Structure formats: structure tokens, C-alpha cells
Amino acid sequence: MKINENYRSLRDSYLFSDIAHKVAAFSESHPDRRIYKMGIGDVTLPLAPAVVAAMEEAVREQGERATFRGYGPEQGYPFLRESIREYYRSFGAAVDADEIFVSDGAKSDLGNILDLFDPDNTVLIPDPVYPVYVDTNKMAGRKIIYCAATRENAFLPMPDTSVKADIIYICSPDNPTGAAYSIERLRAWVDYARERGAVILYDAAYESFVSEKGLARSVYEVEGAKECAIEFCSFSKTAGFTGTRCGYTVVPFALKRCGMSLHAMWLRRQTTKFNGVAYAVQRGAAAALSEEGLRQIRANLSVYRNNAKIICDALDTLGIWYTGGRNSPYVWLQCPGFTNSFAFFDYLLEKTGVVGTPGGGFGRNGEGYFRLTSFADETTVRGAMAAFSAAFG
Ligand code: MLT
């Protein structure tokens, strides 16, 4: 018997579990201290009333013989895939409902999609980056190369034609930096991928935070993207589904490699290994995209946007450099007075009770930076930034 030796190359634990443990230990040893949790990007506002009503109704249907449903359609219910197609259409991206696969969230699909690719491919990943892209490829023993996201390139690396990559990860608006590609800049990546026959794995989990015109909501706003890109998205951040679980992946019919349709391969993979998403959850997700649902979830998003502004305003006053926050729930700041982001994490927690995420946890280029999330209630954010300002003012 042999284990997967690639696991030896992983860090002992996942970044966010690490932080949760550190914070739990601090709370236990300092029971009287106020803690401001702005580390993990987990939503705090409840589900929209339209979502709750749709889920309640669906549960009732499941309790009646006449309306009970067993296994659902393989790619998700047509009512949800149609709603998602319409949602894409609302910002100018054309996807076919049959290109959409409903899932339990972007993270699982971003890992699972790797089943479609040979371990011998070279993977290009930005640094700093959401750790899942790196860890899932390490688990498969794939060769990883990095493209540097730095303050100099506004944390938006552009393709280097001298670099050979087969699989390319892009997250926009980005986790952790909050930087967002314009449609124009994204075009350069699509052209690069098409020229090389590479595949872009595009994580759009934070698209609903885009507020500036000209920034991409979807890779499919770029012409030709359907021949080279798979897009992953989720209701987690858009509609507060982190505890409810629903997402979707778009695998275009036009995406073919080595004579194989990636759509057909993904369908084959999902029907073999994935059980689908609960009917009631899919009803809730569809309700989030209804006219009423969209109005309600946008009201929630504006609370997070306002929180991001509170963070940015405080940093502006303190003269601390940052990016993100405008089109993203994440604010990415330079650690004031620290070069080691983990030391800054410890200092900040001890001194102010504010919890963020050390930039170094997202990669080498993240060192010296720190991520704060706006997924919190306004009182927490105001309290956190007051404590932060008192410490660094
Ligand atoms: C984060 O804090 O980066 C998020 O929790 C990522 C995720 O959704 O898994």
C-alpha cells in the first residue's frame, strides 16, 4: 500500500484553519478581550427573505407525495441554470444554460476540475493567491510556476509570452488582493491561452462586488474566452450562501483539447463523483437571482461595500498603502512597521483584538501585506478600525 506522497509537500494545515485555531486559543486565554474577526472571508448577514421563502416552500414540496423529488437532473435543475444564464446576460456575457453545472461551491469545483488534466501539465498561478489553487495542484504532483503579483503591477500580473503554461489560474476580483482585471487586460490572458492551447481556470466568486465600469464580471465578456476558459462562481459571497452551499461552473461547448470536449469530460466526472445540490438549496439560489432576490442581496452587498469603505477611509487617514476594497470585499494593506505579516498578525491581535489574514499565507509576494475582509457587521468594522487607528495613528 502506498499513500499519495504529494501530501508531504503541503503545509501542515490549511491557512484559514490555522488562523481560526490561533484566534480560538487567544480568545480562551483572554476571555475579556474584544475580538474583531476580519480574517476569513465568511459572510455575516442572513439569507435574503426571498431565498428563505423559496427554500421553505421547497422543503414543504419535499414533504408531500405529489411534489416530492428524488435525484435531480445531473447538471442542476433547469430553473436554476436558466436563472444563472439570465444573470450572465444582464451584464453582457452569453452562456448557454446547458454549459452551466450547478455545484456545492467554487472551491470544490476548482479542485475537482483537475481530474480532467494530466498531472504532467505546467500550472501558472499568481503569487499571492488563494491557497486552494496551489494545494490542489500539489496534491496531484503537478509542476507549478508563479507569476508575480506586486505593488508595481497593481497586483494584476500580465502574461509573459516566454513562459510556457498549460493551466492558468485567474481570480478577479482577486482573493486576496482585491485587484480586478478590466475586460481589456483580461483579453491579453485569453489571447495568450488561445495561442498556447492552454486552459484558463477563472474564479469569479467575487464578481458581484465589481462596481466600476470596464472591469470584468466574467471571463466570457472577452471574445474567444469560450475556447479557452472554464469559469467558477458561487452564491457564497453574492447571496450569503457560505453555510447553505451552492455554486456553478461554466464549461463551454467550444472548449476542446486533444480532440476531447471538456464539457463532456466534466459531465462524465460530475455524474460519476458528485451527488448534486439539494433541491431546496437550488430553489433558494434561483430565488436569489429573481428580481426581488437581487434587490435584497444587493442591499446586503452594499453593507459589505460600506464596511470596505470604512476600512479604506481609516487607512487613508493613517497614510497606510492599500489596494482592493472598491470592487472587492478584501482590503490588502501594507503591514505598518512590519515586514513579516505573521508577526504583524500576532502583534495586531494582541494589541487591538483585530483579526486579519497575513499576506505571507497567500504566497511569497504576499509577505509584508495583510488582508482585512469587509464581511462583518458595521459595528465590528468601526470598532476594529478605531482600535487599529489608535495603535498606528
Ligand atoms: C477566504 O477567506 O479567502 C475565503 O474564505 C475563501 C473561501 O471562500 O474559501
From TrEMBL:
InterPro entries documented for this protein: Aminotransferase_I/II_large (IPR004839), DapL/ALD1 (IPR019942), PyrdxlP-dep_Trfase (IPR015424), PyrdxlP-dep_Trfase_major (IPR015421), PyrdxlP-dep_Trfase_small (IPR015422)
Limits of the Aminotransferase class I/classII large domain: 36-379
Domain of life assignment: Bacteria
Cofactor(s) listed in the protein's UniProt record: pyridoxal 5'-phosphate
Keyword set includes Transferase: yes
Catalytic reactions of this protein: (2S,6S)-2,6-diaminopimelate + 2-oxoglutarate = (S)-2,3,4,5-tetrahydrodipicolinate + L-glutamate + H2O + H(+)
Any coiled-coil regions, as ranges: none
Binding site for substrate: Y14, G41, K107, Y130, N175, N275, R371
Keyword line: Aminotransferase, Pyridoxal phosphate, Transferase
EC code: 2.6.1.83
Pathway in which this enzyme or protein is active: Amino-acid biosynthesis; L-lysine biosynthesis via DAP pathway; LL-2,6-diaminopimelate from (S)-tetrahydrodipicolinate (aminotransferase route): step 1/1
Binding site for pyridoxal 5'-phosphate: Y71, A106, K107, Y130, N175, Y206, S234, F235, S236, R245, N275
Entries under SUPFAM superfamilies matching the protein: PLP-dependent transferases
N6-(pyridoxal phosphate)lysine found at: K237
CDD domains: AAT_like
GO molecular function: L,L-diaminopimelate aminotransferase activity; pyridoxal phosphate binding
One GO BP: lysine biosynthetic process via diaminopimelate, diaminopimelate-aminotransferase pathway
Record Pfam families: Aminotran_1_2
Subunit annotation: Homodimer.
Protein family: Belongs to the class-I pyridoxal-phosphate-dependent aminotransferase family. LL-diaminopimelate aminotransferase subfamily.
Database matches in NCBIfam families: DAPAT_plant (TIGR03542)
Function according to Swiss-Prot or TrEMBL: Involved in the synthesis of meso-diaminopimelate (m-DAP or DL-DAP), required for both lysine and peptidoglycan biosynthesis. Catalyzes the direct conversion of tetrahydrodipicolinate to LL-diaminopimelate.
Name of the protein this chain belongs to: LL-diaminopimelate aminotransferase
Source organism: Candidatus Borkfalkia ceftriaxoniphila
